[in-house]
Structures are given as structure tokens and as C-alpha cells.
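Table S7 (text form). Paired inputs.
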Amino acid sequence: MKICKYDANLMIFMKDPVNDFEIPEEWLAKSPLPRNELEKLVEKGLAVVLSDGSYLKRGFTTGTTSAAAAKAAVLSLRQELSPETIISVPTPIGLRAEMPAAFAKDGKSGVRKVFNDHESDITRDVLFCADVRIVPKSSVEPVMLKKAASNIIVTGGIGVGIIERAGFETPAGEYAINPKPLAQIRNSVIEGLKETSRFDEICGTDSDSVLIVIISIPDGVELSKKTLNDRIGIRGGISILGTTGFVEPWNDHLGEMKDELIQHSKKLVLTTGRQGMSISSMLFPGYDIIMVGSRISEGIAAAKNAEEIVVSGLPGLVLKWGNPAMMKDCEYATVVEMIERDPKNERIQTAFDMAVKKGKGARIVVIERDGLVLLDSKNEFDYLMKQ
């Protein structure tokens, strides 16, 4: 818990460890869950608390799920794991992720991706498998040995896509396993080796052995047909991704569905980017949150059936949408710099007033990256205002 001061009043905040959002006490107090249960979920990164006190379940990324499968496979080299054995693995942000193994025996394992509240996540409940093999270095091709780190080689199998062009974090010709989840898988494997007292055997400088980890997704080829992988240059499966290790319970890649969703939405939030989307999803539970970038006016015009429209986003896009000339002949390089150094600058309020007028009845909410509401045309979030 953390004490913060706003409006000369002391307010208690609990910080979400995944997105660093400081959850106001007012939100926590509305939750139907017992306080200790809610706090445990938040502390583990498993729950996103919304402004009405409800919460959504986070899930784990394809990278975290693959890491759990890899560790389970390593543990099973010592003995078969009973079904539902909980596997604990590290995530890139320092939290632990826990999930049950579906099976784990003789170096082969399967873990199902946790079912989260992200309705567009096509990999929910999908089985991720790992096959680990200890082999002599002499039996491994030199090109594969170059990929070893601590004598551990992580590669893909069926259902994991292959990169076909340059421009990705992973080179062309390699399996679509991004660097962060790759490191996460290796770290989880190392944990498994230490827990089975085999770390020195594999990772020691004098070791003549290599541990090969093959990640596969039995349904990956079919699942990839529901993604854009083929169009962007990833063939034959899905990608192993994840920067935090957690999946947020909303969709920031609506793609071609945006226009249709806007047209049919009754309660609509148009937001400017991913940060705006994540914060808006907490501020406005029950609304359709659509990311439109700088196309705010087009989004409002398309919302023919909306009973409520909110424009919510970071200052740079929202205020400059209100007044494109806001920064003309100004001593500040960015809107954010102006707000930080001169929060009472009249240009800020003028641009906001212009945005309200341009919104034609839409509620305008300007938020900061830390989740605080800077400006709200309905003044319903005053308790978050900075002084």
C-alpha cells in the first residue's frame, strides 16, 4: 500500500504491479470481494480493478505458458508429475506466474493457457507443449550450438510460426519466439534444473551436454488462420510473445472490426492509444473501448447509434485534436512538457474547451500515463485530479 497526497487529503492507493496504475481506495471499497481476497489477486497481477469495484481476470501470455510447459518438462525428467501440479515460473516484470500442468512425463509436458477475460484472445485454454532432451554437444549441428545459452537451446515445433521476412525482433528463418519470452523460457528451464539438482550437469562450464527445448502448439496451425500472421510474414503457426508475461483483459488490436463496433455501440469510449485503452478500460467498465489514434472526429461521426460517447486519452493527442495550433510559437517542445512545467498555462484549458466543443456532446477525459485524470468535462473524476 502507498500513501499519496491529493487535494491536501491523504488517500490510500494500492498499485497494480503489472501496469503501475494506482488504484483509488474509492474503487477498492466498491468491490463485492472480501478485501484480503481482492488484494491478493491484485498483488499477483491476476486482477484489474475497475472504477465500479468490479474486476477482470488477467491471463498469461503465450511466452509465460510456454515457459511453464518447459519447466514442467524439465521437472518430469526426474519423476512424472501428477495432473494439476502447479508450475511456478518467473515473468519479465518480476512477478511469479502459476498454472497447472495438464501432463508431464519423461521430458514431455503440456500446459493449458489460462482462461482470462480477454474475449478476443484466441489462445485461451489452448494446450502448449514442451519436449526437452539432453544430448551430447557432439551430436548437435554447429548452427544450432550457436543458439545455445548456458548450454540450453530453445526452438519451435509444430504450431509455432516461422519468420519469413526482416523487420521482426526475431531474425527471418527463425521460429517466432520473441526475445523476452525466449529468455523467460530459459530462466524457467534453469529453475527446473536447479530444483532437480541437474544445473551443473547441463549448465556447468565443463558440461559436454546440451538441453534442447522444443515448444509446440498442437492447434497452432489452425489458430494461425484466425490471425494476421500469414499477411505479415509469419508462416505455419502462432507467435510466442509477451513483454510483461501477462495478458490484459481487453483488446487493443481490433483492426478491421473498429468501424463496425463503433457503428453498433451504445456506450462508447474512443481512445487514442494502448495506454489510453488500458486506463479507459478501468475508468469505464461496461463501455466498448475502441482505439482510434488521431481519428477522433471520424470515430465520433461513425457512432450513429451511441447513447454515450467518451473521448479519453493522453494529453498530446486529445488536446492537440481540440486545438491543432496549441503548440504554435510556444516555448515548450511537447504538450506533456507544458503540463509538467506550467500546468496553469491557459493554452491547456483553451485546447480542452475546444475539444469539448469539437466533441459535439461527447464527454472529454484527458488522462496522464500514471492513470490520473487531468481534465474531465463532466468532472466525475475530480478525486483523481493533481494539484
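Next pair, protein 2 of 2.
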Amino acid sequence: MRIYFSGIGGVAIGPLSRIALDAGYDVCGSDKSPNLITDELEAAGISISFDQSGEYLRSEHKKVPFDWFIHTAALPNNHPELVLARELGIKTSKRDELLAQIIANKNLKLIAIAGTHGKTTTTSMLVWVMQQLQIPVSYSVGSTLSFAPSGEFNENSQFFVYECDEFDRNFLHFSPEISVITSVDYDHPDTYPTEKSYLEAFHEFGEKSKKVIVWQENSTTFNPKNLITLSGADQNITIPGKHNRKNATLIIETLKHIPTSANKSEIYQAINSFPGSGRRFEKLADNLYSDYGHHPIEIRATLQMARELSDQVVLVYQPHQNVRQHEIIDQYSADIFRDANEIYWLPTYLTRENPDLPILTPQQLTKNIDPEKLHFANLDDNLWQNITTAQKSGKLVLCMGAGTIDGWIREQLAKD
């Protein structure tokens, strides 16, 4: 089978293309510009074009016809490549249908990591631990990893570990052997207009799973018949961050349902040596970290972890998506930011917006935050000067957001 991936540098599409390659399919694709994921894929031998006009798709299709065109959820209906694929009679779909087919064709058991927060870290952690314990594993993680590719197919594996996102109702296309639920807090208002619809989707996901591992506080969302509930973090886990220790506790429980000869000591050693994943409290330089978090609960958890490492924490925060800000504005409280000594607040990164909603300003979003620790900023030379000054004085600088902030920080570091 020959597959074309449009948006191949995306955090979900990229790993899937690598899995398809490893599973024996002929793969190529395109994206708007290079990034860490496309670098990784090109190194693996995948041909990628950064011209999405349709010319590359047409020329490659002439050489050997494509059987399937996979695209990101963000691809507009009138995108030149999507329009051309339909004209050429190529089957088109989003990523979930292909992944479900690969899992079924290879007779793999799915371990799905789902939840509002912590999916990437928990998925990465389970992959890391299984590899350390010599358990063959196929997987897909929505981020770059320091210890392995973002996605991989292992022909010796019984299990497929998947970061199963609720956005666009993606997770409802799967029937997992084990589902691990990290948390359930209302999010993605562009997909779920009400909290009730969000919780109903998680309930439906649980119904499609053979086993569901979940925290006691989220258990009422699911059917008690297939639930395994946990109530507190394992005290033998020593990695930084309360939320990371809770995520690791979920991994301990998951491993009870995976055949392994490893003893408890080996399991704890593997978990406590976890090196982390890209964009999740990722160290970019001395005293400088990048994190994808953009929900108040994620912000509070990551700041708590930063506080374990330093008593002087500077937060640089870029809100993500105006439609989401309308939903969470009242959650931006002094308590959420209590572990930050200083806050540099950027304008909201705009994507997939409702044109009828007014753009909330930084001043509106920070109405409940201590003004003495607050600065309004932009991604410019002045902000970079403030960041480097804080770094050099020994303060921990944490840059958070799912928009352009991470790329901008890396660009500034490359210049220095």
C-alpha cells in the first residue's frame, strides 16, 4: 500500500507515518515547513516536500499511484492537496482510520492513554518503561522523544501504546484492550460545546474499552463494570512533579496487565529513570524550560514541578486559541499561578477560531492575577532580554503554550 501524508510534520500525523513505514507501507508526504518531526522522518528515509500546492502529490502519484491520502484535522476542505487527491480518486481520511487498520491487521492489543492532561508524558513513560523492561512495543506519541522516534512499529510486539486524543472525537474510533485515563476536565469547546457532551464522550470511550484504569475522582464518568480505580500516588516513585508521580502510578497499575518477568525493583528503577518527552518541561538550556501546557490545571501542575527545582520561577505564558480562553477565563486565578514569582503574559495564539467571538485581551484574561507579578509582553527582543537576564541570575524560566512560543525560544537560542 502507498500512503501520502499531508501535514506530515504534525504531532499525530508524523508518528503515524513512521509507524506505516515500519509496518511495510510505502510512505511520503508534505508540510508547510521543516520542524523536528520532519527532520526525524527524513532521517528515517521518508521523502517530504514543503510545497503543498499539489504538484508534488501529482508527480508522485504519476510514478506509483497512491492508495490512501491521510490528512490532519486542521486541513481545510479546499486545501489544494485534498482537492487534488479527491480528483485523482485517492481514498482520503484522517489519521484514526489508518491507525485502527494497522492495529487490526497486525493483531495488536491497544493500550490507549487518554485524558485532558498528561497524555503525552504518560504515553512516553509507558513506552520508556516497556523498552527498559525488554517488552516489545509499538507506539505513537504526540511529541518528539529524547530516547526514541515519536512513533514506531515493532514486529515482535503484542501491544500498541497510543496517545489517544479526545479532540475531534478521535478516541471514539478505537476499542482498547486497556484504557488509561489521566484526568477528565472540560476542554476542546470547539469539539464539545458543553461539559456534558465532553463527559459523555469519555463515557462512550470507556464503554468501548475492555479495562479502564482511572483515578477515583474521575470514576463516576465511567461504567463501574470494567473500572480499576486508584486513589493516590505510589510513594516509591521519585520523579519531579506531583502530576508526574501520579501519571507514573497509572503506569505501575498498567504493567500489572502486561506479561513481564520484571520484578518490582526493576519496574521502579525504569520509571524513576524516565528522561521526559519533548515540550513537556523540556530543558532547552540552563534554567530554561519549554512546556506545551495551556490549560490552567496544566499550568498549576507544571509550576509546582518547577518550584521543586527552584524557589525563583519566571513564567512566560502564551494562551492558546481564543475560543478556549472564553471557556477558561475564570479559571485563571491567583492560586493557579501561586508558584510563579513573575509572569510574562503574551497575546493569545489564534487558531481554529469562531469569528463571532471577540478576542480577549491579556488584560481581560489576567483580571484575577496579582498585578505585582504580572508583565504584558510580546515575542520580541525585549522579552528575550528579560528571559536571559532571569536565566543568568539563577532563576528558572518556564515558557508555556501550544502556539509559536516554543519555536520562537528555539530560534533565539540558535542565534546566541
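The chain has three domains: 2-93, 106-272, 282-415.
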